[in-house]
Amino acid sequence: MKKPTVELKLPIIPNMELIATQTAEVIARHMNLTEDQSGEISMALIEACINAFEHSKAENNVYIHFLIEENSLVIKVIDQGIGFDKTKVEIPKIENKIGHDERKRGWGLQLIQELMDSVEFESNNEGTTVTMKKNIK
Amino acid sequence: MSDFITSVKEMNGIILIETNGYLNNVGGEEISAICYEKMGLGQTKFLINMAGTKIVNSIGVSILIEIIEKLQEVNGKIGYYNLAPIVSKTFNIMGLTKYSTVFETEELAVNEL
Fold first, then answer.
1. What ipTM describes this predicted complex?
2. What is the pTM of this model?
3. CATH code of the domain containing B31
4. In chain A, N or C terminus with fewer CB closer than 10 Å?
5. Chain B residues within 8 A of A115 when measuring between CB atoms
6. Residue B37 domain-assigned (yes or no)
7. Which range marks the domain in which residue B12 is found?
8. Which chain B residues contact residue A98 at CB under 8 A?
9. Among A54, A59, A48, which Cα is nearest to A20's?
10. Which domains occur in chain A, in start order?
11. Is residue A20 a contact partner of residue A10, using CB atoms and an 8 Å limit?
């Protein structure tokens, strides 16, 4: 049997990430995930959406696919922007930000990786796909 | 008062700010505007009641880091209470808890900040 999927197409408009989190909450309830797991998924999704909206310089839509699997929820956030090189993204540390000129932002990837069980990035100059997985425990 | 900032009051020399809804860049800037205005009047202690804020993003939280930095210049302090578990976890991951304090209740926050 085909695995259930939910697909969203979000225009790049401020706060559209909240549509993704509302969808994620419904799916999390369907999958009997805990409140903590649901919150972690929503937070990671917000950050992945913001990256797609702001940093990718994509001009059209961002696509989000929720794949409901037997033992996990897989979420793909897909943009058609300029892509990025993950090896050039520094791990942020608050010690380097407070009292220094370093910009205070730049936490998105770190949060996604901390909050999800696995994260993969596929990126080239035609776009980026972030694949995030939360296991059912 | 905006939709996001629902209350600003003073208690025992501490400015208490109550928020409601999504802490994004707009919400973060509303908090910072109040903090900087009050700092200009000599206030150095701030508490944010986040009972109504169940969801945040890293841009909004980054603005709290800017406030912490400015408060360090005047030996000030900021704390938060009534945090949702994911908000608390986000603050931990971003390291805010190294430079500011999360309290369980308003009473503890006001007494211990």
1. 0.93
2. 0.94
3. 3.30.750.24
4. N
5. 89, 93
6. yes
7. 5-83
8. 65, 68-69, 72, 99
9. A48
10. 5-135 (3.30.565.10)
11. yes
